[in-house]
Write a structure and sequence with these properties.
Elements: H1 3-12, H2 19-38, H3 42-58, H4 62-79, H5 82-98, H6 102-117
Helix pairs in contact: 2-3, 3-4, 3-5, 4-5, 5-6
Length: 118
C-alpha cells in the first residue's frame, strides 16, 4: 500500500500509529493467545502470535517480533493456512529487513510471494 493511501485510510478509520495504540493492541493479542491455546484453536493461536510479532516490529523491537513470528510459522503450516503462512513469512521478511539482513529478508518475501501466487 502506498504511503499516501495508508495515510488516507489511517485518517478515515482514525487509526492511531502511536505507541499507546500498539500497546493496547498488544494487550488484547496477549489476552487472546492463552484463550486460543485453551480451546485448542491452533489457527487463532498462530494469528495471535503473528499479530504480536507485527506489533513488536512496529514498536521497533525486531528480535522480539522475530521470536513471535517464528512461533507462528509452524502452526500456520500445520493448520494448512497458506494465506496465514504467507502473512507470517512476509512479517519475518520485514523483521530481517529492519535488522539490515536484506538477503534473508528477500528469501522470506519470495517464499511469501510463492504461496500467494499458488
Amino acid at each position: 500500500m502506498s504511503t499516501q493511501r495508508w495515510e488516507k485510510n489511517r485518517k478515515h478509520w482514525n487509526i492511531s500509529t502511536s505507541p499507546y495504540s500498539f500497546c493496547g493492541a498488544l494487550e488484547y493479542y496477549n489476552q487472546s493467545l492463552p484463550l486460543s491455546r485453551a480451546v485448542g484453536d491452533r489457527r487463532m493461536e498462530a494469528t495471535a502470535l503473528n499479530n504480536i510479532g507485527a506489533v513488536y516490529l512496529a514498536l521497533g523491537e525486531s528480535r522480539k517480533a522475530l521470536e513471535y513470528c517464528n512461533q507462528s510459522l509452524p502452526l500456520r503450516r500445520t493448520a494448512g493456512d497458506r494465506s496465514g503462512e504467507a502473512s507470517t513469512l512476509n512479517n519475518i521478511g520485514s523483521v530481517y529487513s529492519a535488522l539490515g539482513e536484506k538477503q534473508k529478508a528477500l528469501e522470506y518475501f519470495n517464499q511469501s510471494l510463492l504461496l500467494l501466487r499458488a
